[in-house]
Every structure is written in C-alpha cells, then in structure tokens.
Amino acid sequence: MKKVVTFGEIMLRLSPPGFERFFQSPLVGATFGGGEANVAVSLAHFGLDSYYVTRLPAHAIGEAAVKALRAEGVRTEFIVRGGERVGIYFAETGASQRPSTVIYDRARSAVSEMAPGSVDWDAVFAGAAWFHVTGITPALGEKAAASTREAIEAARRAGARVSVDLNFRRKLWSEAQAQATMRPLMKWVDVVIANEEDIQSVLGLQVPGTDVTSGQLNLPGYRQVAEQIARELGPSLVAITLRESRSASDNGWSAALWDARAARFHHSQRYDVHLVDRIGAGDSFAAGLIYGLVTGRSAEGALCFAAAAGALKQAIPGDFNRVSVEEVDRLAKGDASGRVQR
Prior knowledge:
Elements: E1 3-7, E2 11-15, E3 29-33, H1 35-45, E4 49-53, E5 55-56, H2 60-71, E6 80-81, E7 88-92, E8 101-105, H3 121-124, E9 128-134, H4 142-157, E10 161-165, H5 175-182, E11 191-194, H6 196-203, H7 219-233, E12 237-245, E13 250-259, E14 264-267, E15 271-274, H8 281-294, H9 299-313, H10 325-332
Parallel strand pairs: 1-4, 1-9, 2-7, 5-6, 9-10, 10-11, 11-12
Antiparallel strand pairs: 2-3, 7-8, 12-13, 13-14, 13-15
C-alpha cells in the first residue's frame, strides 16, 4: 500500500440547510473540510495509506476534527496539538444565477501559527511515495509559508514526488504575495495543478484567448501556457481543471494535462454536471490524479480517473469525496447514466 502525505488546514464548515441564505433560518450544519484534508480523505477511500499533517488545538473542537479524519480512514499520528483556534468557514450553496458564497473566519488559527521545526518531517516522510500541499496553506501567513517550504524540501530529501494545487484565494493574500512565495517553490514540484485564475494570479502567466466568466475553453491556449510552466518553472506534469460555468447549478467539467517528458497534451472526457456541492471538486481531482500516478497508471489514464473523481464529488454534499476506486472507474469508462446500482 503506497504511503501518501498531505499538509494543510482543516476547518470547521458551517452551512445553512439546502439552498438557504446565511441564517435565513437559525440552523447551520457543522462538518469539517479543507483543501489538503479533502485530498487525504479521498486517498484513504481509494485504499492508500493516507497521512494528514496539521496543527489543531487540544480542545473538543480540535479533537472533533481529528475524529472526523480518522472516521474516513486518514492517519493522524503526526498532527501537532497546540494553538487556540480551529479555522472556520461559512459556505452558502448557490443555485441557478445566484453564486455560492464563502466567508472565512480563520485568522490566528492553530496551523497559521505553527512555526517551522514543529513537525518531525523526516519521520513523516519515511517510506512516503507522495506529498501534496496547496497554495492555501502558505497564504495563511509567514509561519505557514515557511512550514510549507520546510515540508516540500523534506519530501524531496525522502524521495517522495511532490504535487501542489495552486488554489489562489483572493481573500487570503494578493497576487504579488502569491507569486513571491509560490514561484520559487515550483523547482521542487513534480506535478502542478491549477485552473486559469490560479495560473494568472499565482504564477503571473496568461492563458491566451480565455475568458473565465464566459465558460468558453481554448485548449490550444491551455497547452501553450502548460508548456511554458513546465519549461520555465520546472514541473514535468501540469494539470489544468476546466470548468464551464453556465450557472451555479450547471457546469461543464473536464481537465487537461501536459506531460513534458513525453511532450504530449491530454484532454479528459467532459461531463455535464448538475451541482449538489462544488466545494472540494478540485481536491477530488487532485486526489484522483495522485492515485492514478502513484499506482502506475499512464498520464492519460490518471487524468481520466481524476476528471471522473472530480465530477462525482460535485454530486456529494460537504467537502469530502466518499467514493471508491470502483465507482470512479465505472464513470471514467463511460457509465454516466446514474441508474440505480442493484
């Protein structure tokens, strides 16, 4: 069983029922989620030895977050206990022409104040095949950014492959801050995952002929910028998620992958997705890509598996993608009917 490691912030998610606005009624549902935690959960459901590293307070809410991860099969032995706050985010699910909305309450969270040296990374990466982190974690502050760099360097020393999902969050940092922090890390990264906004905001590169608000895709433009990322910054694989946002309820979903070593550009199958919850789709895609690559699938096969995993997540409420390899493979191979499985 392959050992995979992720590092980031798990947050308490508070959402109103169904499609209600914030506090339209006095009820909110409380679950947990967060970029790298979502990836760890998916990889555990895919049968890998999935470890998640973070820092959480030693109180009841911090313990609830740990238990939520353990319940999904994620290994939590290296979680550091300390600090006072679990980050919170409020998520309102949009519908039709009303977009979804996220409000963060995560300042001074435990992981944002975790100083470098807090984790025995050599122990964490012993026997690890893969390490994954997102651009959200270094956006939490200087200490989190330094810890991210420390983790990536340790992963490379241990011989683990490294993937980074750029995941630009405008509410956390500016484009200039993101570029100053993330571009230098790319030389240690094997696989970079992004969408068109991430590429522009985090790497400072333009996708030719693309308008993110129109929902129109320009595949030659994506290939051009993916080749540029690999050539100028170093990652040998560049994956781009392609979302055609027609409304908050209906999207087109696919992905592309530039394999610099083989000099090949792959485009996955496309799905028309009726959204239940789009949060976590990119994380599910990342997990699918990692699973495919770490288990020896071809680049194209890993991409197709990842696109199917991301599509399935968008039909599941909450952050976590609770699907199996068999379910993802069934969809990837063309069974998109949604018929009852008896």
